[in-house]
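Contributing: when you submit paired examples, paste them exactly as shown. First protein:
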Amino acid sequence: MKILLDSHLLVWLAAATTKLPPAARVFIEDNENTLFFSSASVWELMVKYSLGKNDIPVHPRVLHRALLDNGFAELPITSEHAFTVESLASIHKDPFDRILIAQSMTEGMLLLTSDETIARYNGPIRLVR
């Protein structure tokens, strides 16, 4: 199965924190799954890091390299993803989260998230705790 992780899960995974939900770890450690991260997540984390947000424990460039070195594939943002955003209900206003939702829908990937608002969308989304 193709799995797209949201930004929070990527940060918690990189920080090896106990915040990473056990259900997410099950998906990540299953060798049958192909793991992806979005370029939108890298962008979001770079913005937060540049603003001095304390919840980003590692430079996004280091996170990016570590994800690639550990078998994750990067999912770039395409115009098709952007067009899919138009069809989304106005449940969530965060543009980074909305593009992740659109990417998962467009690509037929399961989006893993710990965000209850994201999980309210119909589509291939799984709330993990």
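Second protein:
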Amino acid sequence: MFDILKVVGFQWDAGNQRKNEDKHGVSQTEAEEAFLNLPLIVLDDLLHRQVESRFVALGQTTVGRHLCIVFTLRESDTKIRVISARDQSKKERHLYGKTR
């Protein structure tokens, strides 16, 4: 289970950091902002769960860009490690809009 109150920061893999920006145009700063702004929806990613727990976060940046972020937790669940970050799909935006 994801508990945002336990999180103290982010852990970035150099490859994922560039991949998200190159492939989806989402900077590291934007991905981190989505976890700081409300509303934030976090769901278990049961479909892509392998050895470790994975989660999907639907959130928005400070300027209102709606993002979908797949992540896992590291260092005893205190650091978020972003796997991918992209713009929300139409279906995800609809789900996110229901929380407002």
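If you have annotations for the second protein, write them as plain sentences, like these:
The mean pLDDT is 91.
Strands lie at 9-10, 41-44, 55-60, 66-74, 79-87.
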